[in-house]
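Hi everyone, sorry if this is the wrong subforum. Our group has a chain we'd like a structural model of before ordering constructs, and none of us has done structure prediction before. Sequence below.
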Amino acid sequence: MKPLWLLTTGLAAVLSLSAAPSIRPERLHVFQRENVLGTSFEMKVLAASAEAAARAEASAAAEIARESAILSSWDADSEFSRWFRTRGQAVAVSPELFEVLGAFDAWRGRTGGALDAAAEAVSRAWESAARQGRTPSRAELDAAVAAVRRTHWKLDPAARTATHLSDTPLAMNSFVKSYIMDRAVNVALATPGVTAAVLNIGGDLVIRGPWAEPVNLADPRSDAENSAPAGRLLVSDRAVATSGGYRRGFEIGGRHYSHIVDPRTGETTGRILSATVIAHRPADAGAMATAFCVMTPAESARLAAAIPGTEYLLIADDGTRVASPGWKRYESAPQGLTAAAKPAPSPSPAPAPQFADAGMELHIAFDLAQLGGGARRPYVAVWIEDKDRFPVRTLALWYEKERWLPDLRTWYRDDRMRAMAEGSDITASVASATRPAGRYTLKWDGKDNAGKTVKPGKYTVILEAAREHGTYQIMRQEVEFDGKPKQFQLPGNQEISSATIEYRRAAR
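Answer:
Right subforum, don't worry. Here is the predicted structure as tokens:
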């Protein structure tokens, strides 16, 4: 997901690049929240008025909260959790829980066991071993796989009851997020005055109505918010889901292990770094994106071919890409270079020691403070200044409404800074593996806004955050760019709970 708009100059650019005719009176309205279903939330609503858009977004958020209270595996008070605590008892359950349990049965069969709610037993074996600094033993994995293979529930369609049968841990996260998103978008579209909606939660998207949404695919090998995308799509009236283990997992002995596990073997996945699926039904896209990280490409191709309207792209650990036959229909040519990447026409300078000569980059990682589930995201600006306080490069500018941009008062202080945002592509959502709520990363390659590599010396990294009618915070860190690695841990504040700035060798 691209929950963030990078270097934006206004909503007019969005409308000019959309599929909606320019003569329509509707405008696109954008809403951003944090910690919704455990990750980030962005909703774009095409509506005749700001009031209609706000009602649509509020109704979608309410529907997400309602569905989560039924289906969440992490909420001890959810209907699912209460049902899970029963054993051998036929329990009348809600239509939503009954439908999802039935869908898990169907997907377990379709994928030959690659997708299974009981995969949580394997995940817990890995988590337990990782806490001890080791990988799980074969005996531990075999025990987890045996637990997965049990029968966990029985459904009675006539009575709409579900009987819980095993003590195996269950987690409903393989495609439940996509299932909930589908229903939330439908509720939003029922709002009078609303024409189209795009919902992006943690990198999965649902696009409904007469609207073509530009979608950038996160590169699983370089997934900072401002990294170059692995591909660009243009999608209408479809769901896009991406799965991969590059953002979450287990760190054991200096090695990263994916959080996605194969419930048939007990091993973590890793050969497929990223699987992106486009489908009519969001739950189908979500289920296949997870399963395709586990299955072989040949198995994935057979399953996709059996579900009309499905297209996919797999990115393997060696960079190989495997795409379905119809994937190219959704591919979109780049809209041109952004202002931040466009090279300046000038003669080649004489060789001189520069920021990137030693293969260095600046990595910025920060966590936005979590103020409760569904809280509005603060406006955030991140940029680089030279020793004379001249702005060298804006890395990110995230906001909802232009009228409140002056609240980012340091970034907004003069025309030079605002001009650095002009000409940038603000339209695309980002499809990616799910990120933890509030956790973001940015990179700087040592180039200024004209695409020229800066000279060695001292530069200042600035992170600014402001909340509508709320607090204002700013962080500054001076960094000497001299080719020598260094790291800085910045103290947190009310809006940015932690930040780490690292000058390091670029990942290859």
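For your construct planning: The mean pLDDT is 86. The first strand starts at residue 27 and ends at 36.
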